[in-house]
Design a protein that fits this description.
The chain is 31% helix and 25% strand. The protein is built from 18 helices and 28 strands. The radius of gyration is 23 Å and the shape is globular.
């Protein structure tokens, strides 16, 4: 059973919907592994679209629903998707960027999601002239296609700021079995067990998506939280006797800020396995959560490209404060210095890793990019760290400028590329600075053109019209001249380091 607000659907009923959607997508011409764009909040339709596309050997392309028209247009065009399934309330922000060739199916925004995001009734309805997903799906007879297993194609940005589609090779049966076994370790979700899964993070991210779809394949009871709210989460845990959750450290921070009487109000004794990742968790936050919820907190290190090769439990977190874990079954992690030589114990270097239980990947339409991303068939996402004598991995720096804010990867190059197009901006640098709640937040330092009259509000308004709101820096500074290296390149460390000097940072 899947539950969202007061709505619920049984597995037999959703499987019938999937069979009908499969027939419908086939009638639209979906075949040959062509991707299907999917811009949906966590809803029944998300499972329907993902499974129906997989039955036709096609991946879905989950699209972050914060993105705007230009960003979504790029992803759809680059992926080659001819079909987009979108929630009604999200359509206005992307409508102007949709290509005429695109076949758009619109899902009415359900009441609990509309309430959580403040969506007006008119905006929640399927607009005139667009195809209603529910009616369209139910007008098709159930397909006889066998269920499929196809990894979604997530778009992840690189140092150039241009998103790249991560497309995995098809998995063989032995690989699938190994992947399920590793997932049981890292996520704690196992088949044929009485488990209740609370989905509180958006499934356009790779980790919540793989977590939610794993629970779906195992036919667990799944509870969808329309939008994360700390007390709402506690209520749902008590009401549904939730046993498993996937979280990010920002959620922990917000939960810990609740008044003590609120935290004590709810029965959380059903919790058995909570796993988190996506960003480093401050030691004091991890320890406070374990003290509150007990030794049910687990952590992994991984990425869209690498899968999950590193993991650890509450007991290990208490014994090794600050660690991100040890290499698990199927994981390979190697650390190299700047000369490409292996690092010894306690010696920091760039981390290259991979989980071999999942198939390798390529960047869609970029045949050479996969090899450029790694070493010895492993992949680096720019982290610097070291192993201690007991084999525990610690992070201590980042090779690249990627910012992780609230568990979301943000790439400054994309923001800089947009900002440099603003009248009055001569040059700019965007980077991460400390934030108690989100771990990091964005700061932009701008060198204005001579005589330009720029304001923080004007800069933020300019970026909001072009980028998702979470990519808009909260801190804006104007400098007469940006510091530069001898080559002329902006010396970003001179701008960023003062913010971190007085603060012990888990990742640097």
């Amino acid at each position: 059973m899947i539950i969202s607000g007061e709505r619920e659907i049984s597995y037999p009923d959703i499987q019938d919907r999937i069979a009908r959607a499969t027939a419908g997508l086939k009638d639209l011409g979906l075949s040959g592994g062509t991707p299907v764009g999917m811009m949906l909040r966590n809803d029944f339709a998300l499972f329907e679209v993902t499974a129906a596309a997989a039955a036709l050997s096609s991946p879905v392309v989950p699209i972050n629903w914060h993105l705007k028209a230009e960003e979504v247009s790029y992803i759809l065009a680059d992926s080659g998707a001819d079909i987009l399934v979108c929630h009604a309330d999200l359509l206005p922000q992307i409508r102007d960027g949709l290509a005429k060739r695109l076949q758009v199916l619109v899902v009415a925004t359900p009441p609990e999601i509309a309430a959580a995001f403040g969506v007006a009734p008119a905006e929640a309805r399927v607009p005139h002239g667009f195809t209603d997903w529910d009616s369209w799906r139910d007008n098709h007879p159930p397909s006889q296609e066998e269920p499929g297993r196809v990894s979604p194609m997530f778009y992840t940005s690189g140092t150039t700021g241009r998103p790249k589609g991560v497309r995995r090779q098809p998995m063989q049966l032995e690989q699938m079995a190994a992947a399920e076994r590793i997932s049981a370790i890292t996520y704690g979700v196992k088949p044929n067990e009485d488990q209740v899964i609370l989905m509180n993070g958006p499934m356009y991210h790779s980790a919540p998506s793989s977590y939610g779809m794993l629970a779906f394949r195992h036919r667990c009871k799944i509870v969808l939280e329309p939008r994360f709210d700390p007390e709402d989460l506690l209520q749902l845990v008590e009401r549904h006797r939730v046993t498993h959750m996937h979280m990010v450290p920002t959620m922990f921070v917000r939960l810990l800020r609740l008044p003590e009487d609120v935290k004590a109000r709810y029965d959380l004794s059903s919790l058995r396995f909570v796993v988190h990742g996506a960003a480093p968790c401050p030691v004091h936050v991890k320890q406070a959560m374990i003290k509150w919820w007990g030794p049910v907190i687990n952590e992994y290190l991984g990425s869209t490209e690498t899968g999950i090769p590193v993991w650890h439990s509450s007991e290990e977190a208490l014994a090794k404060p600050g660690t991100v874990g040890r290499v698990i079954e199927g994981g390979i992690v190697k650390i190299f210095d700047s000369n490409g030589q292996p690092c010894g114990v306690g010696e920091p270097g760039e981390i290259f890793m991979r989980q071999t239980a999942i198939s390798d990947f390529g960047y869609h339409g970029m045949s050479d990019a996969r090899a450029e991303a790694g070493r010895e068939d492993l992949v680096s996402v720019g982290d610097v760290g070291y192993f201690d004598a007991d084999g525990y991995l610690f992070l201590c720096d980042r090779m690249r400028d990627m910012v992780i804010s609230g568990g979301v990867n943000i790439y400054p190059a994309e923001i800089e590329n947009a900002l440099i197009g603003m009248d009055g901006v001569r040059d700019c640098a965007v980077f991460g600075i400390p934030d108690d709640e989100f771990g990091e937040r964005l700061c932009a330092c701008i060198e204005p053109e001579s005589g330009a009259m720029l304001t923080s509000a004007a800069v933020q308004d300019y970026l909001r019209r072009r980028l998702a709101n979470f990519k808009v820096p909260k801190d804006i500074q104007f400098l007469d001249a940006l510091p530069r290296e001898a080559t002329g390149k902006i010396f970003k460390r001179k701008l960023r380091d003062p913010y971190w000097e007085a603060r012990s940072r888990e990742r640097t």
